Amino acid sequence: MSKLLTNTVRFSIADSDFYFKKIMIKTLLESPFYMLLNDCNNGHELVNRIYRRQEDVFIVELFMPVLSGIEAIKYIRKNNNETPIITYSGTYQEDMAEILAKVPNLYYCEKKSNIIKDIIKGKVTSNTFDYESYTKEWEQQPLAVQEYMERQKKSQEELSPTEIQLMKFCYEGFSNKEIGEKLNLSTRTIDTYINRLTEKLGLKTKFHLIRFCVENGYYNSST
């Protein structure tokens, strides 16, 4: 049953990708109507913390060590068919989609914080998100894995090593002043560089730059 937008949305998340999970939690907690109940690193942690039906939605990465997302989902659904579950992966997995389609009240999507947030807002708290149309678009992407890798390569080619380093400093939590000290540049120069970089990528703020860095895997790059 959909919740009123004025009600608090209590969520638990399980994701082995620390940085994406951090971004996801921060994105949701920007709203005063969202409340984090459990922050888990894998499915095993999640199922061991579920004592009562407190969650309004579960957010579960599909592929995790120790206990996978699919196994955690099966465990949740043994005693609870009502609470919505959102699960995700980097690219569309046809075999997993077939299995997940049989799970009631579950939404499978791409590993993007904005999409996950839109599904929570548009399916858990209201009925404004066209999940069926979204799914058709995603599943029809030809050669999804290859396209994903090509997009990654293209992004790498478009960004200079200095720009990538700036993003990594940002996600590591350094202030512009601290970044300037590391690069022997003034704070004003760093301000200018970061502003230009966000504009180049079509982003709005430093936080959006950090999210871009995480969701596109730059924090793992050796640049």
UniProtKB/TrEMBL annotation:
Gene3D superfamilies: 3.40.50.2300, Winged helix-like DNA-binding domain superfamily/Winged helix DNA-binding domain. PROSITE patterns: HTH_LUXR_1 (PS00622), HTH_LUXR_2 (PS50043), RESPONSE_REGULATORY (PS50110). Keywords: DNA-binding. Residues 152-217 form the HTH luxR-type domain. GO terms for biological process: phosphorelay signal transduction system; regulation of DNA-templated transcription. Pfam families: GerE (PF00196), Response_reg (PF00072). Residues 10-126 form the Response regulatory domain. PANTHER family: TRANSCRIPTIONAL REGULATORY PROTEIN RCSB (PTHR43214:SF17), TWO-COMPONENT RESPONSE REGULATOR (PTHR43214). This is LuxR family two component transcriptional regulator. It comes from Chryseobacterium defluvii.
